[in-house]
Structure formats: structure tokens, C-alpha cells
Amino acid sequence: MNENSKSLWVVVGDIHDDCRRLAEIPELEEAAGIIVSGDITFDGGVEAADRVMGQIAALGKTVYAQIGNMDKPEVTPWLAEKGWNLHTEVRWLSPSVTVFGIGGSTVTPFNTPSEFTEEEYGAWLSDAWAKAEQSEAAVLISHNPPRDTACDFIPGPNIHVGSQAVRDFIEFAQPALCICGHIHEAKAQEKLGATTVVNPGTLADGGYVLLHLNGGDVRAELKQLP
Fold first, then answer.
1. C-alpha span between 218 and 8 (Å, rounded)
2. What does the pLDDT look like over 146-195, one tens digit per residue?
3. Best CA proximity match to 38, nearest among 79, 1, 7
4. Structural contact between residues 37 and 13, judged by C-beta atoms closer than 8 angstroms
5. pTM for the complete prediction?
């Protein structure tokens, strides 16, 4: 395998206005880029997102990001203007690997700024997959985890709160990876068929994912800062 076909990406999420721990990630220096899976802010708009994303962009890496449910909808067109948006977009990480994103979340009891219906998720995923499936390997970045997995489980009430549309899509399309977030307590990794699903939890708690690319092979490594 040509050494140039190998690369490493750092994936983080649920930043909520505080990205200071990003600089502690030991693999950051060698990373080709940084992907933010959602919740850049805590109920913030463009001004708050600019403060966070400005710090991330200053690290000098390629950056892709999308809204979570806690980011106001106005953040999406702002990210697009910067060339960073991943929500409903497909990007090529290499000649063999695509990444596509679905931000926000399904409806919550908390009336957060960016909530969408299962039908919207299904349509977005279908549209993105028409482009992403042309690659050898595809990586889904979904802020909302797939339903009924370790990655959407809230202990205490013992309930699953992920998206059924995201699960249905994964079961149908079987992308190589799904990296999600949203449910802070559900830091976990599991398989849905051939798809590895990973939720690193919050950046503040030290959770992140290393996305390893090697030609058309991709692998997610769940990591934890001390």
C-alpha cells in the first residue's frame, strides 16, 4: 500500500462552547484534519460558533463540521460559507473514502434549536448516499445515534433515544462507519451488521475518535484522554 494513501482524522463532538481539550489529543499533530460531529455550541448561533470554530481552524488542519441539536439553524449556512459544512453534504477524504453528515437531532422533550423529523432524516440520508456510495468506503457522521444501540442508551430511565431513520439507513446501506454523539452518557462502540457505530461522548470528558484511512479501508478507534 502506498504510504500516501494512509491518513488519520480526529473526530470530536458535543463541544458545547469549550474545545480546550482538543489540544491535548496526542495524535492531533499527525492528523490530516478534524471533524466535528455536532453541538459546537450550547444554544448558540453564528457568533458562538465562530468563537469555537476559529480556535479549531487556527490549528491549521482541514476542518469539517455540522450542527447538533444545540446549535441554531443559522450555523449551517455560516459553516457552508466557510467551506466547513458537513450537514447533508458529501466530502471526499481521499480518492477512495467519502464522509457524509447529518446534524441536529430528532425531536426531544427540551425544544432544542435544531430538531428534525425522522422523515427529514430519511430523505437527507437517501440523497447523500446516492453520492457517497460511489466510493470504496463511506463514513456517516450522524450527530443523532441510531436507535436501540449502546450509543443511544440513557441509563437511569433505561431508554433508547436515537433515530429510527438513521438505524434503518445503516441496516440498508451498511456504510463502513457511523460516528455519532448527542447522548453524552452513551460512550460506546458496537456493530450494526457490517457497520461499526461509535459514540465518543463529549470532548470535555476526553472522548474522541481516530479515523484511520488506508486506501479503501477505514477504521474507527475510540479514544479517551486521561
1. 10
2. 999 999 999 999 999 999 999 999 999 999 999 999 999 999 999 999 99
3. 79
4. yes
5. 0.97
